Amino acid sequence: MMNKPSRTGVTHVLDAYSYSLKGLRAAWRHEVAFRQETALAAVLIPLALWLGTSASERAILIASVVMVIVVELLNSAIEAIVDRISTELHPLSGQAKDLGSAAVMLSMLLCLGCWAIIAAQRFL
Question: b/e map of 57-86 (b: 16 or more CB within 10 Å)?
Answer without folding.
Answer: bbebbbebbbbbbebbbebbebbeebeeee
